[in-house]
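Chapter review: from sequence to fold.
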Amino acid sequence: MELGVDPYAVLGVGMLAGDDQIHRAYRSLARTWHPDANPGDTDAAARFAELTAAYELLHDPVRRRTYDLARAAAHGPRPVRSAPAPTGDVTVRGPQARPAHRPRSVDREPDKPERDEFALLGLVAKILAALVVVFLVLVVFASLNQAPECGAGVNPAFCRPAASPTP
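The token string follows.
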């Protein structure tokens, strides 16, 4: 198959199509364009021959790889001319013909999060809450930790007097 006709376009599949997709596309188109289904139609016979040649090229992994490399070397990654679609449509197909999913404008700014006016107030509230929790923990710890009784080897400034026995 010459490089002017894209076998992918002939079969109506993409370049990343697997063997199953190529086989299904060929079987579907072969039923439509087979000379037995179109007796006396020379265009159908030519179309069927083109389909068969495209299928034989893409079905063989070695020939397909060789074709892909030769096409990329000769014309870049995209074909020069697309073959007519299975419906006979000759409009341009491919990545350049597809509209963008989302139109891009030049003056469009990237999405910025809206400024939260209460962010500083929330931060201050969190800091105050943390300080209150720390203060309460210290108070509870101080109330549970009582000073030792005064005795030998204990500094009298940091001890509590021993309880006197009641008579």
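Two observations follow directly from the output. The chain has a mean pLDDT of 76. The helical segments are 7-11, 19-33, 42-59, 61-75, 119-144.
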